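ok, trying the design again with the full structure, not the truncated one.
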């Protein structure tokens, strides 16, 4: 039996993040992946590598979801970059057409190149239309601070508090990602299920964020859920996978590197 995993997310032209990273992660984790594109994002090398953001027409998004769900019996989905309230509304309506075993929300609120005022509208739309139906939500520090309504996240205790506040918005689990942004030698994530807090730790690999790490973590979590694993086990496996992907990162002409999902597979051959 082939396990299926579905992603609804933006296309990122460098291949380091977005639906490209999601589908590569699905492949590496042994699931058959398919996806719906919500927007097209491309770096602008002539403007400090800012993002150029182009939303897909909501009707086209709905048609993609209709096609994907008609071809396959899908019940596990990761939701990534949506970008506008209109897109969020289209995706929410599409998701309501059938039951889902798991919905993993990577709550990308805004990317460089969008109007700053769009962040609040996107945040509010996610809170209302998507977040309450999520099995797991995977915010980074900025997203966790925003969704939790906190002024700062300065350590693990703050991250735990943010996870608890976000849980009150409706998701069953919150996996709040500290990454390299919290002080200390470890990249710490917090998993909260409404009762218990689980701390996931790994040594930091550098002090700079790597493109695609958040996408890859959420996609790996989605793949493990598609295979029938518990959220706690899926989160642990995803943490290990993204750590290996960061360690094997790929450099380009950008001022930041990108994760490489194949690193975990090929690493033993170089040991």
């Amino acid at each position: 039996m082939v396990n299926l995993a579905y992603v609804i997310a933006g296309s990122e032209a460098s291949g380091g993040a977005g639906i490209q990273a999601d589908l590569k992660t699905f492949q590496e984790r042994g699931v058959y992946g398919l996806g719906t594109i919500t927007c097209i994002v491309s770096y602008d090398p002539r403007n400090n590598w800012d993002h150029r953001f182009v939303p897909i027409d909501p009707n086209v998004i709905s048609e993609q979801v209709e096609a994907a769900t008609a071809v396959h019996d899908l019940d596990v989905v990761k939701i990534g970059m949506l970008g506008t309230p209109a897109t969020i509304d289209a995706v929410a309506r599409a998701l309501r057409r059938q039951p889902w075993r798991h919905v993993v929300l990577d709550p990308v609120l805004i990317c460089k190149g969008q109007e700053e005022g769009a962040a609040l509208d996107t945040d509010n739309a996610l809170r209302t239309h998507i977040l309450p139906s999520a099995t797991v939500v995977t915010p980074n520090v900025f997203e966790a601070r925003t969704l939790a309504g906190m002024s700062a996240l300065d350590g693990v205790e703050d991250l735990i508090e943010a996870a608890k506040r976000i849980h009150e918005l409706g998701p069953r689990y919150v996996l709040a990602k500290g990454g390299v942004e919290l002080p200390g030698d470890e990249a710490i994530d917090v998993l909260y299920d409404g009762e218990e807090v689980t701390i996931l730790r790994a040594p930091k690999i550098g002090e700079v964020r790597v493109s695609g790490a958040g996408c890859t973590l959420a996609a790996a979590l989605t793949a493990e859920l598609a295979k029938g694993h518990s959220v706690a086990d899926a989160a642990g496996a995803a943490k290990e996978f993204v750590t290996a992907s960061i360690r094997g990162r790929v450099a380009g002409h950008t001022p930041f590197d990108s994760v490489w999902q194949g690193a975990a597979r090929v690493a033993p051959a170089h040991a």
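Keeping the full-length input from now on. Strands lie at 4-12, 32-44, 50-55, 76-79, 102-105, 136-137, 173-177, 186-192, 197-203.
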